[in-house]
Write a structure and sequence with these properties.
The structure holds 3 protein chains of 3 kinds. By secondary structure, chain A is mostly helical. Chain A has one domain: Up-down Bundle (Formate dehydrogenase/DMSO reductase fold), CATH 1.20.1630. Helix content of chain A is 71%, strand content 0%. In chain A, α3 crosses α8 and α8 packs antiparallel against α9. By secondary structure, chain B is α+β, with helices and mostly antiparallel strands. In chain B, β5 and β6 form a beta hairpin. Chain B is globular, with a radius of gyration of 25 Å. The termini of chain B are far apart. In chain B, 50% of the residues are buried. By secondary structure, chain C is α+β, with helices and mostly antiparallel strands. Chain C has a domain of 106 residues. Chain C contains 6 helices and 5 strands. In chain C, strands 1-2-5 form a 3-stranded mixed sheet, with no helix packed on it. Classes of the chains: A mainly alpha, B alpha+beta, C alpha+beta. Chains in contact: A-B, A-C, B-C. Chains A and B meet through α2 and α6 of A and α1, α5 and α6 of B.
Chain lengths: 410, 310, 206
Amino acid sequence: MKKDTSSKGLVSFVKDGILWNLSGSIGYQIYLCILVCLMLAGVYGYVIQFKLGLSATNMSNIVSWGFYISNFTFLVGVAAAAVMLILPSYVFNDKDLHKVVIIGEVVAVGALVMCMSFVFVDLGRPLQFWHLIPGIGQLNFPSSLLSWDILVLNGYLALNALVPAYIVYCHYKGREPVGKYYKPFVFISIGWAVAIHMVTAFLYQGLPARPFWNNPLMGPRFLASAFAAGPAIISLVLHVVNAATDYKIDNKIFNKLRIIIVSAAVINLLMLFSEIFKEFYFPTHHSQSAMYLFFGLEGHNSLVPWIWTAISINVLGTLILAFNPFKERQIFLMPALVLLIVGIWIEKGIGLIVPGLVPSPMGEIVSYSPSTVELLITVGVVGLGMFVVTILLKPALMIEKKYEETHGHH
Amino acid sequence: MDSDKTKKINRRAFLKGAASTAIVGTAAVTTGCKGKGLLGSSEVFALEFQEYFKKHYCLMTPAERQETVSRLEKLARIKQDITIEIDTTGPGQDVLYGYAFNVTRCEGYMECVKACVKENNLDRRSNTQYIRIFEMEHGQMSPDQGDGKYFHMVPREGHFYMGVQCFQCENPPCVKACPTKATWKEPDGIVVVDYDWCIGCRYCMAACPYWGRRFNWNQPEIPKQEIATQQHYLGNRQRVRGMMEKCTFCIQRSRKGKLTACVEACPTGARVFGNLLDPDSEIRFVLENKKVYRLKEDLGTDPKFWYFID
Amino acid sequence: MKNFFVYSIRFCVIPGLLLFLSVLTVFSNQEGVTARYKDASQKLDINGQVETIIPVPKQIVKATMDYQGGPFFIEARKSEIKRFKCSSCHNNKTVSIQNAAAISHADIKMVHGDTAAPLACNTCHSQEDRDSLVTSKGSKIDLDHVYDMCGQCHFRQKKDWIGGAHGKRVTYWAGQRVVKNCTSCHNPHSPRFDKRWPATYSVPFK
C-alpha cells in the first residue's frame, strides 16, 4: 500500500484494515477460507449442542469439566505469555523484542478470545450470561474465583487490545504514540498478566474438595508452563510471519525467546517432579487422582498414554531447545517448539482437569474422552482464534512495516 | 496494474459474498432451530420472554415473586397440561434443619431414593438421584470405598449401608464458588439454588466435597402422571437443561412442617430430621445421646447431616 | 530502571494491597453449627413455629410417658388389628366359626428370641384377658401401649424411641409429636426386617 495515510481518521483505519485483510496472495485466501470452514464446523457443532444441551458432550456429573475447560486453562496461559515479550522490551528496554511486542499482544488477544469462547460454549445456559454483569446481574465478588477470573480476563483483553490499537493507530497516522498515554497501561499489564494466570490457577487451587488441585504449587506451575508454551506459540507465529510476510524477524529475537522458553520449561519440569514426588513417595487416599492419571485405576486408563507422551515430548522439546543443535537456522527448532506446546497442552489441559475430577468425591471412577460435538466446537473456536490473530496481525504488521520504513526505528 | 487491481477486487468481492452468505446462513439455521421451539404459541413466547428478564429471587419483591409463580404455573398448564402450585414460603423463625442417619438401621432398601426421585421431579432419562446409598464392607468408614451401584438382595452379609446426599453445609464451598450468587444458604440452613438465575458453569459442582450437586445435562423427562404438583420455587419445581439442582431437604415439605420424602419413606426409621434449634427435637436427642460423626469433617464445611450408630 | 520502580509502586503495590484486603474478606467467619445448636437451649414456643395441620392419619393415643419435650402421641394399634377384640372368639363360650383353620393363628411364625427356643405365645399374651398383653411381672399392657411390653427386653431401643433416635415420626417434624408404635413397623412375632430387593438402583456412570 503506497497510500499516504497520515491524514486519515478512525473510520478509514478500520476500512483499510478490512481491505488489507481481504487482499493477499492466493495462499493467504485459501488459508482464510480454511479458517472460515473451521469456524463453520464449530457453529454446526454448537447448533447440535444448543439443541441437545450439554448431554451432546461426554461430560457427566463426575467429569463435570472436560475438553472445553482444559483448552481454556491452556489458552489463558498462552494469553499471559505476552508479558514475556512486554517485560524485556519495556522494562529492560530490549530493542529486538520491542519489534515483536505487537505480535505477542495480538496472539494474547486471540488466545483470550478463544478462552472466552470456550467458557461460553461450556456454559449450560449461555444466554443468561448477563446474570454475571455487576449492576444488571449479580457478580459474587470477591468470594467466587470465577468472578475474579471474569474481571481479570476482560481487563486483560481490554489492555492487550487497546494499547496496541492505540500504538498502531498512531503509526497509521504517521506519528509517534504519546508515551504517557499508554506506558502506564503496559506496566499494569505486566502485573495483570501474572494475575490472570494466578487467578485461573486459584480457580482450581481453592477447592479443598479436589485434593489433586488443592496444592500451593498450582499457581506457580501454571505460570511456568504458560511462560514455556506461550512464547513457544509466539515463536511459531513469528516463524510464520517471517516466512509469509515481508516483516522480517531477526534470529536474535528467536534466540531470546528460546532462552525464555527453556528457562520456564525447566522450572515447569522441576515443579512437575515436585508434584510427582508428593503424590507417589507416600501415596495416600488423596493420591488416587495422580494414580488414575499416571497408571490408571480399576481398568480406566485412557489418560495414561497421553500423560506419558506429554511428559516425554515436554522433556524432549526442552532438551532440544536447551542444547540448540541448529544454532543459526532457528526454523529447524520449530518441531521442538511444537513438541513442547503439545506436551504442555496435554499435561495442563486434559491431564489436569480430568484427574482433578476423578475419582469423584464419593469414589466413582470413569473414563472421559471428548465427543464429536466437543471436537467440532473446539476446532471452530481454534479457527476463530487463528482468524482473530490473522485479521488483527495483517494490517498491524503492514502499518508497522510502513512506519518503520518511513520513520526508522522508534 | 489495473487488471491486477480488478482481480484483487473480484477476489475481495467473492470473499465478502462468501463470508456474508455464511453468516446469514448460520443465523438462519440457528434461529430456525430455536424459533421452532419458541413460536409454538405466542402466549408461551410472551411468558418465556418475561421469564428471561426476571431478577434474582432474593431481590424480587413479594409481588414480583407472585408474578413469576403465576407465569410458571400458566406455562405448565399450557405446555404440559398439568396444574401445579408453586409455593414461595420463606424460612420459619428459629428453625435450623438438621439430619441424622442411623448407619446401624439402614438396610439398603433404597426406598428413600425412589421417594426422592418422585417427590423432587428428577429427570428419569438420566436417572438423576440426589441420594446415593453405598454398600460398605465392615471395617470401612468412607463411602468412597463403598459400592454405590449394588443391586441384589439386601442386606448382604458382612456389609452395612450408608446414604449420602447434599449435607446442607453451614459453611458451604458451593455457595462461595458460585459466580452469580445463584446458590445461597437460606436462614433456615437449606442451601438452595435459584434455578433460573444459574448459568450452568458447574463451578459449584467442582467445589462440593460430597458430590451433592447435579447438573441437567439434558432436558429432564418426567412421565406426566408422576409429576409432583406441590412445588416450591426453590425446591422441586421443574427444571430445564443447563441448570444445577440439588437436594433441598424437600423445602416444599419441610417449610410446611412435613418430613422430607426420604425420611418418610424409610421403612426402618434410619433417618431423623428436625429443628436443631429446638432443644426437645429428635435430632437434638440424637446429637446429644448418640455417637455421631460427619463426613470429611477436616474440610471445615460444617455439614448439618450426621451419621450415628446404635 | 528507576521508571520501573516508580511505576511498580504506583501500579502494582497499591493494587496488590487492595487485592490482599479483599482476599481477607473472602475468609469469612467459621462459626460452627455445633456451637450454634448447643447455644440453643431455650425451649421454643410451639405456637410460634412452623404451621402444620395436626395430623390424625389414623387413630392416635397419648403415650404413657413424656419425651424430652413433654407429652407425645403414638399411632394406635388396636384399630389396625383386623380381628380385635380377641375376646370375641377367645372367651369361655362355645363359638362356631367357619374356616377356623385359616384364622387359627397357625400361620404365625415365631422368629423372635433364640432361634432354637423362640418366645412362646404366652410370654407376651395374657392368658386370662386375651385383649391385653402381660409383662413378665404380671402387669397388664394395652395393645396400644405395646412399647412398655417390648421395652422390657429392648429397653435401649425404647429409650431411643422415646427420645427420637429410633422409630419415626408420622408425616410431620413440627407441631405435636406423633410417632409410630413398635408394631407399626415391626411384626411382633417376627420383628426383624426381611431381606428384599432394593426399591431401585443407581445407574453406573459412563
